[in-house]
C-alpha cells in the first residue's frame, strides 16, 4: 500500500522553513558542549528579548521556531522542579525568569509555531548513570515542557552523546502522545520526521518521504532502530547553523556567517529537494540575535520571495503528461513541481521540457518530487512547458507546476 502522510505531517511539510535557536549556558562560556559544571551565575542575558527572535523569524518567512530547552550540559532554560541547574539559580531576573515561557508566548503572539529540543544526554545530572532513575527524571522534565507551554509543533530528540544508551522510548513517546499528539517527533523513539543525516542543511537527492532508518548522530554511523508503529511516511528535516562552525553564539565569530548566496543554495538543496530547512540562528550573551545575523536572515527571506513569490504561469493536473502554457514567449529558468502528497508520493521518474524554436528541448530530469522539487536551468525562451512522468507507482497527481524567471 502506498504510504501517505498524516494530517499533522502534511501541515508540517507546508512550513518548509523553521528557525533553530541554540541558547543556554554555552552562550556565556564560549563553548559548544558544556560538561555540566559551569556555574548558573554565568547565565545573565540582560537584554533578553524573545520578541526580537520571533519577529526576525516571521519577517524572514519562517513558520516555526525550535528552542534548546536543555542541551547536553543539562542546564534548563525553564524553572524545572527536577534540578537546581536552571534559570532559577541564575542572576537573570533574580532567578524568576523563564526563557521557554517568553519564547513560547512570543511565538503565540506573532503567529509562529513553537517547538522544543530536550537533550536525552545530560552531563550534569548525577543520576544519569542510573538508567531507571534518569528515565524518571527525564520523563518529569519532558512532562513539564509538554504540559506547561501550550501547543508544540515539534519535539526534538538529539541522538548526540547517547550512543549505546537505551532510554525508555515507549514511555517518552507515550507522554508526547498524551499531551502533544499533534507535535512532530524528531528522529528518535517513534519519529514522524527524520534527521536528514548531516548538519550541512542539504537533503541528498532523491530524498524520498518514506524511510525505515536514519542516522543516530554526527558522531556515529549507527542507524537507529525505531519503535514498532513508526509510520512509513517520515519526511526529512535539514538542520544547519547560519554560522558555519558553531551552533551556539561565540564572540568574534562573525567571519563564519554564511553569505546570502550560501544560504540561498541551502534552500535549493533542502526545500528544493522536498525537505524542510531548520536554520540555526543563535542569540548572543545579551539575549538578542546579533544584528549581522538578523540582516542575513531577512535578506534570505526577501531573496526567496523575490525569486519565487510570483510565478509567470502555473497549472495542475493528473496523468503521465502535464502541459503548462504561458501567456507569451518569455524567458524561463526555474520550474517548481509539487505532488499532491496527501495521496502519496507517486512519481518515480520525470523529464521536464520546453517547446522552443520549433522543437522540444530537455531542461531537467529527476526522480523524487514529493512536496516540492525545484529545477533550475539555463534561461530559455518559451511559452510551453511539458513534464512527462516516465515512471510512477500510481497515476501522478500534480498539485502545482509553476514556471519562474529568476534574474
TrEMBL record:
Residues 40-302 form the Glycoside hydrolase family 29 N-terminal domain. The keyword Signal applies. Keywords: Glycosidase, Hydrolase, Signal. It holds the Pfam family Alpha_L_fucos. It comes from the Bacteria. SUPFAM superfamilies: (Trans)glycosidases. It is an enzyme of class 3 (hydrolase). InterPro entries: FUC_metazoa-typ (IPR016286), GH (IPR017853), Glyco_hydro_29 (IPR000933), Glyco_hydro_29_N (IPR057739). Its EC number is 3.2.1.51. Belongs to the glycosyl hydrolase 29 family. Alpha-L-fucosidase is responsible for hydrolyzing the alpha-1,6-linked fucose joined to the reducing-end N-acetylglucosamine of the carbohydrate moieties of glycoproteins. This is alpha-L-fucosidase. It comes from Paenibacillus dokdonensis.
Amino acid at each position: 500500500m502506498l504510504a501517505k502522510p498524516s494530517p499533522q505531517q502534511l501541515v508540517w511539510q507546508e512550513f518548509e522553513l523553521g528557525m533553530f535557536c541554540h541558547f543556554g549556558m554555552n552562550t556565556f562560556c564560549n563553548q559548544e558542549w558544556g560538561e555540566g559544571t559551569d556555574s548558573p551565575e554565568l547565565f545573565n542575558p540582560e537584554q533578553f528579548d524573545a520578541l526580537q527572535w520571533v519577529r526576525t523569524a516571521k519577517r524572514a518567512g519562517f513558520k516555526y521556531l525550535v528552542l534548546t530547552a536543555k542541551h547536553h550540559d543539562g542546564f534548563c532554560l525553564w524553572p524545572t522542579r527536577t534540578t537546581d541547574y536552571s534559570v532559577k539559580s541564575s542572576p537573570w531576573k533574580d532567578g524568576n525568569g523563564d526563557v521557554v515561557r517568553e519564547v513560547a508566548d512570543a511565538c503565540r503572539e506573532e503567529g509562529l509555531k513553537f517547538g522544543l529540543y530536550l537533550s536525552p544526554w545530560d552531563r550534569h545530572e548525577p543520576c544519569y548513570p542510573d538508567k531507571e532513575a534518569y528515565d524518571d527524571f527525564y520523563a518529569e522534565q519532558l512532562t513539564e515542557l509538554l504540559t506547561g507551554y501550550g501547543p508544540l509543533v515539534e519535539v526534538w530528540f538529539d541522538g548526540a552523546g547517547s550512543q549505546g544508551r537505551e532510554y525508555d522510548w515507549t514511555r517518552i513517546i507515550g507522554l508526547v502522545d498524551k499531551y502533544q499528539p499533534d507535535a512532530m517527533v524528531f528522529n528518535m523513539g517513534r519519529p514522524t520526521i527524520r534527521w536528514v543525516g548531516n548538519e550541512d542543511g542539504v537533503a541528498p537527492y532523491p530524498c524520498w518521504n518514506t524511510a525505515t532508518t536514519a542516522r543516530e548522530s554526527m558522531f556515529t554511523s549507527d542507524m537507529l532502530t525505531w519503535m514498532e508503529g513508526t509510520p512509513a511516511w517520515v519526511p526529512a528535516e535539514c538542520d544547519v547553523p547560519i554560522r558555519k562552525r558553531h551552533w551556539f553564539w561565540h564572540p568574534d565569530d562573525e567571519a563564519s556567517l554564511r553569505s546570502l548566496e550560501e544560504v540561498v543554495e541551502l534552500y535549493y538543496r533542502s526545500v528544493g529537494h522536498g525537505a524542510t530547512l531548520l536554520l540555526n540562528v543563535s542569540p548572543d550573551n545579551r539575549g538578542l540575535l546579533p544584528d549581522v545575523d538578523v540582516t542575513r536572515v531577512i535578506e534570505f527571506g526577501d531573496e526567496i520571495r523575490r525569486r519565487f513569490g510570483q510565478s509567470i504561469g502555473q497549472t495542475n493536473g493528473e496523468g503521465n503528461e502535464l502541459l503548462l502554457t504561458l501567456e507569451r514567449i518569455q524567458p524561463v529558468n526555474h520550474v517548481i513541481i509539487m505532488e499532491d502528497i496527501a495521496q502519496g508520493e507517486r512519481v518515480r521518474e520525470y523529464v521536464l521540457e520546453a517547446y522552443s524554436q520549433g522543437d522540444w528541448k530537455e531542461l531537467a530530469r529527476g526522480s523524487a518530487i514529493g512536496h516540492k522539487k525545484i529545477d533550475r536551468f539555463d534561461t530559455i525562451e518559451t511559452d510551453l512547458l511539458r513534464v512527462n512522468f516516465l515512471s510512477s507507482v500510481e497515476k501522478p497527481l500534480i498539485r502545482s507546476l509553476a514556471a519562474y524567471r529568476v534574474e
